[in-house]
Amino acid sequence: MNAKLPLFATAAALAASVVSAETWDMPVAYPSHNYHTENAEAFAAEVGECTGGELEITVHPNGSLFKGDEIKRAVQTGDAQIGERLLSAHANEDALYGYDSVPFLASSFEASEKLRAAAEPVLAELMAEQGMTLLYSVPWPAQGMYFNQEINSVEEMEGIKFRAYNSSTARVAELAGMVPTQVEAAELKQALATGVVASMISSGSTGVDEKTWEDMSHFYDVKAWLPRNTVFANTAALEALPAEVQDCVRSAAEAAQTRGSEEAESLAGGFLDTLAENGMNVAEPGEQLQADLAEIGDQMTNEWLESTGDKGQTIVDAYRAE
Ligand code: PCA
Known about the structure:
- With 322 residues, the protein is α/β, with parallel strands linked by helices.
- The chain has two domains: 21-140 and 226-271, D-Maltodextrin-Binding Protein, domain 2 (3-Layer(aba) Sandwich); 144-225 and 281-319, D-Maltodextrin-Binding Protein, domain 2 (3-Layer(aba) Sandwich).
- It has ten helices and eleven strands.
- It has helices at residues 4-19, 35-50, 68-77, 109-129, 167-175, 185-193, 204-209, 235-239, 243-277, 287-321, and strands at 22-27, 55-60, 82-85, 132-139, 144-147, 161-164, 179-182, 199-202, 218-220, 228-234, 281-283.
- The strands form three sheets. The protein has a six-stranded mixed beta sheet with strand order 7-6-8-5-9-11, sandwiched between helices. Strands 3-10-4 form a three-stranded antiparallel beta sheet.
- Strand 1, helix 2 and strand 2 form a beta-alpha-beta unit.
- The longest helix has 35 residues, at 243-277.
- The radius of gyration is 22 Å and the shape is globular.
- 45% of the residues are buried.
- Mean pLDDT is 95; it is low at 1-7.
- The site of pyroglutamic acid has 9 residues, from helix 7.
């Protein structure tokens, strides 16, 4: 007898009409075991819980749904409802997106948090103009320089093939006489292994993700800046949700920002230990190298202030006033 079947179907239909779950795709560019991705998973779980399953967010790691450099556009156009992106990679579109990658402006976790808060109104406005709602951001550990040889000055970098992830990294390379190529993290291992690139600026976190000790020998802890991964939603998709669901998204975002930032700070030292344990030479930059990089940093700070005008200055003033 199949008497139960229609009954079951009715119950299912009823449940669906009560819950009517909305599902969102959340593309991210970094691997599933990276703390940014784990934090995004925890954010998605919290949204699910808070909304009683009314909004389900599926995180797609490692550029699997949209590649890193496609994520912002996907969210802007609504192909994805929410996403995580290293926004500084879009500084060529608007230099304000590079606020977190101005050399030596903010080189500690504490300073990075101050800079984030100072930049938030300007960044949120810029994103709103593009149909996106800023939700949260989490820093990477301070950026160091990776090479496959000892480096004591900028002069010694001449001609080295360099992996860039945004216009600041490309500009450092250019000013140092290196040859930059933009490579997303998901393609980095292959670019290193095949010799397309042989150096980079990044954190110990990405160094560990990509097992850089297999391809490079030296890490210099120059603490150039702490770039951030930013999570944002398509504004129309967000505003189509019931008010209490939107509240859940915003409160989970706030919690994710705090949790992710604490996680970054607590993991940072261990990443460098792991590089060293695997045979990399992890060191402070020498005096000459430090002085050379400071000079490049000054030039790039001026360039950034010139290209961002009043808005960039507003961010720097608010940051320094903190
Ligand atoms: N890792 C990311 C961005 C900054 C970082 O530490 C990357 O290298 O792609």
